[in-house]
Structure formats: C-alpha cells, structure tokens
Amino acid sequence: MAKKPLLEFTDSGIYCAQGRFYIDPWKPVDDAVITHAHSDHARWGNKRYLAHQLSQQVLLYRLGDIQLQTVEYGEKVMKNGVEISLYPAGHVIGSAQVRVCYQGEVWVVSGDYKLEDDGISTPFEPVRCHHFISECTFGMPVYKWKPQKHIFDDMNNWWCQNVKEGRASVIVGYSLGKAQRILQNLDLSIGKVYTHGVIENTNEALRRNGIGLKPTTRITIDTPKEEVRRGIILAPPSSVGTHWMRRFNPYDFGYCSGWMSIRGAKKRRAADRGFVLSDHADWDGLIAAIEATGCEKVYLTHGYTASFSRYLSQIGFDAHEVHTLFGDDEEGEEAAPTQPPPEGEALTSALTENAGPKHLTAENFKVSPSGGGLEGAL
Ligand SMILES: [Zn+2]
Ligand SMILES: [Zn+2]
User: Fold this and answer.
1) Theoretical Cys-Cys bridge with 61: which of 183, 205, 247, 355, CB 3.0 to 4.6 Å?
2) How far is the CA of 140 from the centre of ligand 2 (A)?
3) SS3 call for 79
4) Topology of domain 148-275, per CATH?
5) What residue spans carry the region label Disordered (predicted)?
C-alpha cells in the first residue's frame, strides 16, 4: 500500500495528519500554522495559532484575542513527533515558509513569497526539501519585475512633480506589506507621509512589534488639506473612488500592484499612474526559488497553476497543480478569495488595451479544466 503523504489537501486546507495540524487553513481547525497575516492565509476561528514573532501584533490586531504561539525563524517546534520550523519568505514583514519534517522527509509550504530584498521584510531564504508547495500568482513569462529602486525613483519623481504642480499625491497599495514597503522607500526630504486609518492601524501594530517604520501622520477630519497637498498619502485599495479620497482634490492617484504590468489594468482602476510593484515572485523568481529547493516534487497553488505546472513538467520537474482557497493580495484589501486571470489571458491582455485580469468568485474557484490536485497526484 502506498505511504500516506506527510502533507495532504483537505476541505479545510493543507493538513499534516501525522502532526495533526493545518497550514493556513480556510476552515476553523484546532491547530493552525500561519505563513503570514494576509486575510486569505490567516483566517479567524482556529483554536490555536503558530506564526512568526514579527506577525504577532498584526495577527492580534486583525484576529482579536487569539491563542497565539510565536517563534523565530529556524526555531523548531514539535507537534506529535513532527518537526515544524519557519523560514523567511520575503513577502511581507513576518512572512514565513513552513518547513515540516518527519522521519527524514521534508516538505516546505512557501505561502506567498518574493526573492527581491525589499528592505523591510526578512529576505527570502531557499529551503532544501523533497516536496515543495509553491504559490505561482505571477507564473507567466510576461511577468518580470524591475528592481525596486527603479520603481521608487519613479514614485519619488512623480511625488516631486505633483508638489510642484500643487496636486496631492495618493498612492494605493494594500495595508500590510505594500504600504510599509512604500513608506520605507519614499524620500522624506520631499514632504511628509500621511496615512489612511487602516494603514496607520497596521503601522501601529508593527511598531508595537518593534519594527522601526519611518514617521507617518494619520489623516483625520481636522488634517488641513493644504498641508496634505505637499505630502504623500498612503491609502488602501478599498478607499479608491470614495469620498475619503475625493476630498484631496486636486490629486494624482498612483496604484501599486504586479497587475499594473498588464496594459489596461491602470485604466480599469482609474489610476493616473500604475507602479509595477509586487510582493510576489515574478516568473524568473518562481523558477529560481523552485530550483533552489532541490525538490523531487513541486505542487502549485494560487495563480496560473495549470500552465505553470505544465511548463515545469516540460523542463523536467515533477510538477502538480493543486486547488486551494488562497486569494490574491495584489488585487485589493481583504479581498474575497479570487483567481488571477484565466489561463492565457495575461499574454493576450498584454497585447490588447482593454483586457486584463478578470476575477472569478470563490464558488468558481475550485472549477478548473485540468483537474488533478494533490491527492490525485500522489
Ligand atoms: Zn500574502
Ligand atoms: Zn497568498
């Protein structure tokens, strides 16, 4: 009889039967190991949580009074004889890959990750393993990121120009990760940084966790508009098109997301400027990360799973597509589980002005033409 895999996919999430715990479960369970605090990975309702120490305050802020054990990177925790340890994923502050080891067999769950050192998250570290479960949000060759220095030079120049022309600068990115990455790379000799309440609450949680962020000023109804116009405003995606944002008129609105590399994405969000800035690995990054694990088998979750696993199989990997309920944090704040552009659309939309990522609902999420899944694969 075939040996039961150390990690398997269930209706509740990625499960280790031997250790009796889940990784980023999407239904409430007793023991949850959390890769990072984005809402599609850290959900409410689990009895016990295990996460990296730098996620502590954000998790408590987002999930309330939970039973949370925290660890440092590389620290080992035993659960029913199975060894668990976390390694940096470079995605957001406190984000981790989960290494699971039992009787010499090693599995790694990547969570979300990127390879570029963003200057604020602990940089990604490849972990050797037999089985690697990897995200592939941007697993299409069309996605290739420029070094962040280019993006932030552009952003600081754009801000300068707006100040000269008397317009406020509003920059949109999700509240955990993108907002702090932007903040740390802004040139504060240009002006002050103002924040939407959702972002400032997250900043406060991170500061409580000992993270040294640059100074920010929370926008309140009393904040003078003229003062804000010389600064830059960090806002979450949920504020786009709201009265809260319109009151800064005249303003220029910049949107930060990996999807901004697709022509048409900027237009659909009514952004004046699109900054191609992602906290996920691009095509080359994904392949480099997978190669660096030296894994025997790779399982692809959220993203272009079907085409990316086909490509990896062609270049000699034992690759399999799996279905999960992880969402798309590049798309928006606290977004419901969504799916990136259907297969092939990124390539065609790069050529057509109006096309771009279409997002399907959670109901549609499990319906995929190629099938397979982790259990089927094993
Ligand atoms: Zn994430
Ligand atoms: Zn994710």
Assistant:
1) 205
2) 16
3) strand
4) Rossmann fold (3.40.50)
5) 329-378
